[in-house]
Task: structure prediction
Amino acid sequence: MSAYAVLWHLNYNVPMTNKKRLTLPAKIHPAVIAVWAAVVAAAHIVPAIPMLGTGSNFSLTALLSPLAGIFFGPLAGALCSAAGGFIGSLVAPHTAWLGMGTFIIGAVTAFTSGCIAWGGWPLVTLNSRGSFVINGGIIVYIIGTVLWFSQETGRGLVIFPLVYYSAGCAALIAGSICAGRILVGKNKALKIPIVWLCAFGGMTGGATIGNFFFLILYQLPKETWLYLTVAAPLERAVFSLGAALAAAPLLAGLPKIGIFVGPQEEAEDLLPVPPGPPPPQTGGNEP
Result:
């Protein structure tokens, strides 16, 4: 095969010996994940925007972590967010409220969002070997809730996880039921609420771990936690809306130019169509 033919096949992602396309996440190029990690790191230096009425700030990194899980799956998304968050803490240490461990929150957020978008329904299933497979997002919520009630302050504030964590868990369940078929579908309008569910469930899942560290590090008074019972879900809802508005066009448009993100169908027409037939395979005498 000539050198031109080899370059043609590589450029258009067409296997030279096997016409069957690989299923995701193999279609997602590692370079795309690395670029997203760099974007997460760079976002730490972007000034946060104050949110009126909540007393909190809108940070660009709050959007990127759940999107990493939605775009690349729970494991790759968590690694992407962790790498970007760790480097971001070095670049902008004023954003590292948990020191060098701040990246853990973003990684858990990405993992949970990825479990919702890629996990499917039901949340607990049996695989072909007869073993139980549990959606990782549920495990995150269980761990976060146990950690909350492991502290005396947490045990005295049952209403906080009852309201906040229940809302996130509801988003996890609703998203797991609908995300699989809608994210691979062609209805762009429905992608926005589905991404919102994935992002909200993921952000709340990450918050279950972050709230535990707040309990043991900052000793916030009970009145503050009661205020956050309403303010925190509202804040995450706004952040999730921003994530949904940013992600929906990317999920729809990037695969059309050969940059695969998010769950995809195995259909052949999802890959970019080459401009013409491949060059003919000839003998090995060409230069």
User: Anything to note?
Assistant: The chain is about 60% helix and 5% strand.
